[in-house]
Amino acid sequence: LPFDSNAYRDLHLPGAGVGGHCLPKDPWLLKYGVDTYGKTDVPFDVIVKARMRNEMMPTHMVNLAKRGAKDAGIDFAKAKVAILGASFIENSEDTRNSPTETYVELLEKEGVKWVIHDPLVRQREFPYTVSKDLEETVKNTDIVVIFVMHKEYFDLKADWLKDKMKTPIIIDGRDVIQLEEFRKKGFTAYGVGKPS
Questions:
Q1: Predicted confidence band at 138 (pLDDT cuts at 50, 70, 90)?
Q2: Residue 165 domain-assigned?
Q3: Which residues form the UDP-glucose/GDP-mannose dehydrogenase C-terminal domain (predicted)?
């Protein structure tokens, strides 16, 4: 295999969750191997805790959206949420074990209406309807949730988005936007790993 000198690609920052084929299962395989065959005095609790933390991130994203709705004075159960990104990783169409899928399931349990935008995902590879039209997706929504850091989302402008939305609430799960800039434009804005 060729060496990829791009260290950023391997750096996992706090975000809305992880997916794909490897990260959801490899920590459990490593733990099993150490528990079964390992001869070490080093506890592997950190691996288990990290995996469990990643599995709960879609729930954390729902809680941030609920907080945003409460702060903006709207009923979360009656909100319409626009989810930006269906793939498990940025600038890819790959949806294997996408945390967006878990997020949608959690929204459905809450009775919340939702729409999804992804510029790359092909419909046949994802169990939920995905739009390629960003403007149509965010139109008349109450909450925009950024789940994937597709390059297209870095171009989001607060004024443009606020003009399209019913209620200006944004939850950034990937450190895509400048929260303070959106707050200055009247948004209720929260992000993973960011101070309120």
A1: very high
A2: yes
A3: 82-179
